[in-house]
Amino acid sequence: MAEKKQDGIWETIKTIFWALIIAGVFRTLFFQPFWIPTGSMKDTLLIGDFLFVNKMAYGYSRYSCPFSSCPISGRLLGSEPERGDVVVFRHPSLGTDYVKRLIGLPGDKIQVTNGILFINGEEAKQVPDGTFEEIKQAQGRFATFPQCANSPVGQGGTCIKEKAIETLPNGVTHSVLNVRNTRLDNTNVFTVPDGEYFFMGDNRDNSTDSRVSPNAGGVGFVPAEYLLGRADRVMFSAAGKRLFYFWTWRYDRFFKAIE
């Protein structure tokens, strides 16, 4: 009886071991789960959206493996990302994962003037598209409150942001939000170095991105090896602080394509 019990325990251990190996391989080579923790990509991505990052899109680097443990120099089987892709990448100095929209490719000149994006001197035209509205309440596991263009707004009130549809030079269109005039609405010209990329959040006035250097608390230019993959589709979404708060599930966002 004791021998059968030991055999059963050993089989359980082996099953768990191989399950972890398979999960690790799947996460490394194919898709990595990612929760949206902040509002920097509203309204394309909302706090509480859950997605799988397509790691096959841009190939693999040392950062593709858990704990940045892949023995890879540069990128392996890499393909070039496209302007307008929504990308998950490793912050060059903090070691945390960020999700932003790819705006600048190597060699591009990027500038923001009066809140309008210019790429190589060409305006990314914005067409007003009404407003984005949400309830002023704590959101997600960090319990952050949204910023509102119609401030002051009391808790439980309607928080409003101006919304526009922006068209990038390659024809990619996406939503951008405006809260207020900030210092990042007017920038110097950024020239993207070879092998690096420039990212911005769609919630332009509430995004830590390439417009600010890492030394000043931003992201700066992101080297190609730090790209983890492309975000293609929201698989699940919950507005509450916990996944099992089923009454906060956003069913209309399940399996929603990311544009």
From TrEMBL:
Keywords: Hydrolase, Membrane, Protease, Transmembrane, Transmembrane helix. It catalyses: Cleavage of hydrophobic, N-terminal signal or leader sequences from secreted and periplasmic proteins. GO terms for molecular function: serine-type endopeptidase activity; signal peptidase activity. Its EC number is 3.4.21.89. It comes from the Bacteria. Its main location: membrane. The active site is at S40, K100. Belongs to the peptidase S26 family. Residues 10-234 form the Peptidase S26 domain. Pfam families: Peptidase_S26. GO terms for cellular component: membrane. It comes from Aliiroseovarius sediminilitoris. It is found in: Membrane. The keyword Transmembrane applies. The lineage of its organism: Bacteria, Pseudomonadati, Pseudomonadota, Alphaproteobacteria, Rhodobacterales. It is a single-pass type II membrane protein. This is Signal peptidase I. The chain crosses the membrane at residues 16-36. One of its GO terms (biological process) is signal peptide processing.
